[in-house]
Amino acid sequence: MNTLFDKIWDSHVVSIVEDGPTQLYIDRLYCHEVTSPQAFDGMRARGLKCFRPEKIFCMPDHNTPTHDQDKPIEDPVSKKQVDALSKNAAEFGLNHFGMMNEKNGIIHVVGPERGLSLPGMTIVCGDSHTSTHGAVGAVAFGIGTSEVEMVMASQCILQQKPKSMRINVNGTLKKGVTAKDIALYLMSQLSTSGATGYFVEYSGSAVKDLTMEGRLTLCNLSIEMGARGGFIAPDEKTFEYLKGREYAPKGEAWDKAVAYWKTLKSGDDAVFDKELNFKAEDIEPMVTYGTNPGMGCGISQNIPSIDTVDEAGKESYLKSLNYMGFKPGEKLLGKKVDYVFLGACTNGRIEDFRAFADLVKKSGKKKAEGVTAWLVPGSWLVDKQIREEGLDKELEAAGFAIRQPGCSACLAMNDDKIPAGKLSVSTSNRNFEGRQGPGARTVLASPLTAAAAAVTGVITDPRTLL
User: Fold this and answer.
1) pTM higher than 0.85 for the full model?
2) Where are the domains of the chain?
């Protein structure tokens, strides 16, 4: 019996090159400003039009400033890229949600919330975190710029079919443990290469219990385990989330779509190339201590001592800790925090802001002196929800401000850069050297752990404040 991955993949195969790749039909291409200019130039040079322009959606997110978006962008490189996307989308007749457009935001937040990403689809974007869209039951993965051009020209892509892996997380998550903690825990267990060559299906009772926002967070981080992508079979929660969304089917078309979506699951006798099982009860709030997302531990635990690291990895392990200013065997609890970032395509959704605000409220504290906090919605729709629910007022009363939507401090491609040497507790997806700014030091964590750091000024177990 086929896995769900097989079902979706096989239904999109156009042709198979003998001893070569598969020609795969793509339902949706997302384009942002960073990885698309060369693709548009390539199309222009070959005198080509986009084959199915209505299937392509463009929006700037990486370079957009998170303040004064109604004014011209000051950074010349950012301005050039954002302007180029606007010009290219107009020239090729593509859907474009520009800055200050109410549909603008981080592409991986906007796709699901607008109903553009749907179960059973194949979805690509020139961005590694495209795996996010797998949360709706789609096969979604990042591609390179030359492949973006390939999809623009033909609505198809040449791909080797990945192997399949199922990761089951069963049981019930404890208080203060979130989808972000599941993802960081899996990476700490599997390493950043543990799922290389695989497409991961997440399953098990703890995964099914996650909200759609939680599922989007979990799938977002699949790439950080080396996976080609990650997804979750659609269920009633998925349908409920998508119903009534702007681009989701309506009326009779909706009923027909749901009837099909209900068939999208792996059979009881489906065989995976690899299957792994984990217990939800083993997971506590997680933090990273190194310079890749797999270097993480439970917040109450110690950084692994050097004798637990294999000989080949000792040098890079010590280099990583040296960059972070940490020592093997010590705890992260109580470390002074300079910056806190809530946002990114990992944790920039309404549920993340609710969680952050809830912990601030329950702690009875205000933003700690000496902490700079950037709270950045993933889209204008999230911003609207924040204001409708009064979360902005609650947070402002505690000394926090809501910024305008964009990728922000997830990566150093806009004004929101963490200064060299400063320690940031971040809800984003990567803690590489210089990822948040040259010399910046990043600890990845959940919105609850970020909120706990923001009100105490040090790395704090969120469970002590809930």
Assistant:
1) yes
2) 1-284, 286-464
